[in-house]
Structures
1.
Amino acid sequence: MAETPLRTPDGRYLVVRGRLWRASNPGLEEPVRAALVNQLMAARREVGAARRAGDRPRLAKAGGAVDAAKCALGERGPVWWQDGAPDFNRHLVRNTPYAAWYALQQLD
């Protein structure tokens, strides 16, 4: 079973292989979040099917559906937090203000 990714103390990011990935908006109601996750997973399956079929138009449409679901979840697009903090999505943790926190996590 896959290990649960580390989450930054403010809950904004997951850390995967030393890189920050924006977490879903925790303010989403559970039924909405679950529906969006289902849409995301269906779109990802469609991406795979389109790739295997070599169908570029289908792949583009499926990729757009993945992007739309991730934006709706808050993982892409405008940030979901309101305090004006910058977005460090896809940055290496060591190059962000989370570097000291992350270094301490590596000692555990």
2.
Amino acid sequence: MKTFKAALASLALIAAGPLTAQDFSHEIADGPVPWNDKPFDAGEDRFMFAIHGDLTGGERPDVFEIAMAQINLLRPEFVINVGDLIEGGEVDRAQYLKQWDEYDRRVDTLRAPIFYVGGNHDLTNMLSKEIWAERLGPSYYHFLYKDVLFLVLDAEDNTPDRIAEISAARAEAVEIYKTEGREAFAKTEYNQMPERSSGTIGAEQAAYFRDVIATHANVRWTFVIVHKTVWERADESAFASIEAALSGRNYTVFNGHEHYYAYRQRHGQDHIQLATTSGEQFPDLGLSEDHVTFVTVSGEEVDIANLMLAGIRDRTGHIPLEGDDVCFATAECGENE
């Protein structure tokens, strides 16, 4: 006859949602068992997704390919990002297409699907916006997965006239950055524009997301993915209206753009800024290292883990794609010196 503890373990296994007694079996008939009575951490409502950070501003070789191989080792159900997927800039159509073909080729090595998010490098000017629409459709959208809502925002939602002004100022500033460095760049007209740091959410986009949020009022969790910290713009009202619509529910916001990691709370909700996944690093600003973020949703709980690329190794004990000697933190290997 089984002891009370063994019986309790059996009940726990049966109560663990879809992981029934048929999924786990043993041949210990009587007495204690060499495991505790915790239910298996599994369930139909449990899933994991990965997020990768910025590639741009001077992508470093080999890093992104290694990151894709490492993500495959960890088997998320899907992958998303925080934008700045191509270098972009003031280039012609052929160069844009070449850059997108290269990004698509590299993410095609993933075993899971990837969702695209636009950053300022991807949506620099009207030509880049046209190419995005041709290849990828809308620059802002939403989707549902296992009763969890994902809102993908476009922080480059400016009028055509303003896009032309920003694009011209950006082109001049980029040349100054290349020839005179970061200090000179910081003084440029472009760097003083509010769109440079915090971006823009238009009224039509805000109305779209308010409607989506109202339609999906009872989801388990909501994730907001946006390239820039639009909430930091002075007198911003469009994103504020999205925040107001989100009030009263659990949500998490992810952004990129600044190339260093930052954790904040706003309205009692986590706001997480990813660092890089091969983009240029700025260790003087904060934690600026290559990483991927893994998010696990289980029931009404969310766990977030940041995995540094330097620590993800395969079964042989090595970083995939012969990456043992690749630099993932320029502050440690001196690449920015």
3.
Amino acid sequence: MEELVHLAASTLVSAAATAGWERAQRALGGLWRRAHPERADRVLAELGEARAEVLAARRNGDERAERELVGEWRTRLRRLLTANPDMVLELRRLIDELGPRTDTDAPPAGGVRLTAHASGRSRVTMAGRDINITKR
């Protein structure tokens, strides 16, 4: 169960920082409405706060803050499953719905796909982030 919960928390936090944000809200809201309808709105508001935090963390390169958010949501999801073990399949569906696409032509979730073909004496330099090139 711990591996499932960790994967779900990581997937949820990652989705909060991507175009999959609305899907993440709907999926998480659905889980909480079925298990604890009286808490669903509060949990969704807290997910909104987490979204703001993860976006700031990524903007600032703060990996620790993002890991901490995953830890917070892992605890929440573990408690949810402990109280509602019948929700395991729904949590797996959440992971499948929000997880990275497997389409090989699409970039990975939250990233870019770089492809280069070189021949002869050509030189290729690619970077997914900052790069400095000094020609010698």
